[in-house]
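Example S7 (structure tokens).
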């Protein structure tokens, strides 16, 4: 991958590049760092997991896209993990648990609002027309790649192999919906589900397998912005979100943010523990 990089903090040559970790807000970063410190998967004596540097991508779809591009220009990465809290849109996403998502869908970019809303894809438009990835020179073969075809309202994500069993008990994958605003009540949440389901039926989306249509599972406000930046930079993206509340529930007194972020920390530690070489044993240090 050829682009300007800040190599001062790159891992040793013998290790594969570690994923870059982003969260939207300082609150989520602080909760995640505290959760790592308390995680049994991290503190175990035989753990190979090194607590990562956690960077901020900002709140909302615009800031997250811009800051992700900034971080990817400044630091070497071939895989990015976006973490944080989300609101549940389906029974499959339980409050206090964390989940990896197979797709992220844009909701709110198009024409109209409420029941009259039409997405970009419904009108035959793309979020981004044909473009060559910053890290991949134009070739005849790149014309058929996902970035060469442009970007629509649904982007496929990477789920770490070890985490695939955590998708759902019946094997269905989960889709995350990114809105410009979070659902303000259950009615808005239900409308968001209906619109997202329609987007999955509009070609070409992300070539969703008809036999594995994702469950519209949760909402956030950054995932799609981060996903666009990663597609442009030819970087794999995984999204893991802890469910803090039901989408549309604005009573923060009932939100389970700490529990949700602890679940995120455990998911990352359990499924990304090979991103650093093993810690030296006491005998190695003597």
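Recovered sequence:
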């Amino acid at each position: 991958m050829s682009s300007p990089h800040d190599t001062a903090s790159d891992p040793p040559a013998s290790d594969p590049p570690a994923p870059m970790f982003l969260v939207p807000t300082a609150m989520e970063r602080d909760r995640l760092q505290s959760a790592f410190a308390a995680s049994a998967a991290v503190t175990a004596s035989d753990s190979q997991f090194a607590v990562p540097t956690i960077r901020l991508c900002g709140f909302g779809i615009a800031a997250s896209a811009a800051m992700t591009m900034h971080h990817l220009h400044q630091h070497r990465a071939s895989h990015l993990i976006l973490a944080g809290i989300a609101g549940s849109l389906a029974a499959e996403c339980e409050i206090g648990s964390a989940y990896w998502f197979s797709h992220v869908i844009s909701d709110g970019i198009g024409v109209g609002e409420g029941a009259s809303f039409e997405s970009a894809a419904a009108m035959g438009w793309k979020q981004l027309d044909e473009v060559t990835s910053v890290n991949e020179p134009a070739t005849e073969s790149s014309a058929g790649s996902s970035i060469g075809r442009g970007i629509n309202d649904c982007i496929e994500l990477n789920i770490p192999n070890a985490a695939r069993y955590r998708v759902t008990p019946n094997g269905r994958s989960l889709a995350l919906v990114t809105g410009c605003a979070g659902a303000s009540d259950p009615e808005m949440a239900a409308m968001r589900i209906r619109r997202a389901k329609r987007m999955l039926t509009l070609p070409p989306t992300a070539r969703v397998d008809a036999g594995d249509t994702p469950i519209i599972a949760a909402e956030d406000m950054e995932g799609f912005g981060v996903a666009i930046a990663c597609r442009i930079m030819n970087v794999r993206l995984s999204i893991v979100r802890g469910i803090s509340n039901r989408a549309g529930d604005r009573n923060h007194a009932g939100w389970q943010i700490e529990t949700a972020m602890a679940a995120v920390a455990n998911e990352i530690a359990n499924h990304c523990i090979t991103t650093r070489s093993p810690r030296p044993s006491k005998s190695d240090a003597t």
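Notes on this example. The chain has one domain: 20-280.
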